[in-house]
Amino acid sequence: MPDQQSAYQCPSATTDPLRLLRQQLQQWAEELGFQQVGVTGVALTEDEQRLQQWLAAGYHGEMGYMADHGNMRSRPAELLPGTLRVISVRMDYRAPGVELAGALTDKHRAYISRYALGRDYHKLMRKRLTELGNRLQQAAGPLGFRAFVDSAPVLERALAANAGLGWIGKNTMLINRKAGSYFFLGEILTDLPLPVDTPDRADHCGRCTACLDICPTQAFVGPHILDARRCISYLTIELKGPIPTELRAGLGNRIFGCDDCQIGCPWNRFSKPTTEADFSPRHRLDKATLLELFSWDEQTFLNRTEGMPIRRTGYENWLRNIAVALGNAPASLDIQAALQQRRPLATPLVQEHIDWALQQQLSNAVNNS
């Protein structure tokens, strides 16, 4: 199906039905809880080249899915044949009253990335995106569309930037001048040739390198280039084996994901708290101690993480991550006892991290004596 963008650029909204639909799309998106919506075409040539270079350098680590499906990730029309437009949306997730940087200073507390404290966003957003597509179809007539929220090979940040939702910062996150970066992204691929929005091509990061400098494991090779193999989010969520010894101290008390490169970003002073109650912390996980979470058995873990992003890491890696954080905590007899008590029941992977943590605890005790 040919791209019909040029045929719909000039007429006013009063005479152009597609422009009227674009205006309605804005209203529907807001009614469904999205803070912003934008429309773009499917061209991602430069982004495809950058992705190929990133993969060739091996920066994706064990995330083999990033290299799967050929070039489909950067070619939406291969994912859904006939696609002419991508409708991109964002939804704020930072729950009101939840600490950010302050929660990293108490080394006895567990830090969980703030996007993961509440309900899993995938189903919530995909349901609403599908409703948005249905409304569009009811108004426009038969059309092809599919909604995606991290559920298919899609370069969502590049598409969102092209749709005018922000720019990709030096920390590789999409940043919005009025809303920072604490938001989720989702897309609708469609064959409806809606008028496209104008992207903001300016680099609003300027000379700032706060996000690069603050990274605890120095995971950024340079501006806009993340070596995921050193990223705490990768290490605590994606990595299935042992966490490299040289990177463990950098984890601090972070047991699922990391927000440091967002916490350090000056643009996040403009971020807004979410109005979605489902993104509020469950089980007081924003205030939980490491020892409290380390005491969970597998059934407790499964029960309390049901319907949450945290479930993805699995119980074994949950214990692995917390063991590392306990090793990074100040020397404590209670911590040492908990580690020793857990060890005989743990898998070999967790045992190795417990042994490291016990060594760190002894070292911390000596250094503080």
Automatic annotation (TrEMBL):
Which spans are transmembrane here?
none
Q: Which Gene3D superfamilies match?
A: 3.30.70.20
Q: Reply yes or no: does the keyword Cell inner membrane apply.
A: no
Annotated residues that bind [4Fe-4S] cluster 2 are located at 215, 231, 258, 261
Principal localization reads: cytoplasm
Q: Which residues bind [4Fe-4S] cluster 1?
A: 205, 208, 211, 265
Could you tell me the EC number(s) of this protein? 1.17.99.6
Arranged from A to Z, the UniProt key words for this protein are:
4Fe-4S, Cobalamin, Cobalt, Cytoplasm, Iron, Iron-sulfur, Metal-binding, Oxidoreductase, Queuosine biosynthesis, tRNA processing
Question: In what pathway does it function?
Answer: tRNA modification; tRNA-queuosine biosynthesis
For the ligand (cob(II)alamin), the binding residues are: 73, 150, 171, 174, 185, 233, 258-259
Q: How does it assemble?
A: Monomer.
- Indicate the family of this protein: Belongs to the QueG family.
State the protein's purpose. Catalyzes the conversion of epoxyqueuosine (oQ) to queuosine (Q), which is a hypermodified base found in the wobble positions of tRNA(Asp), tRNA(Asn), tRNA(His) and tRNA(Tyr).
Q: What protein am I looking at?
A: Epoxyqueuosine reductase
Tell me the name of the encoding gene: queG
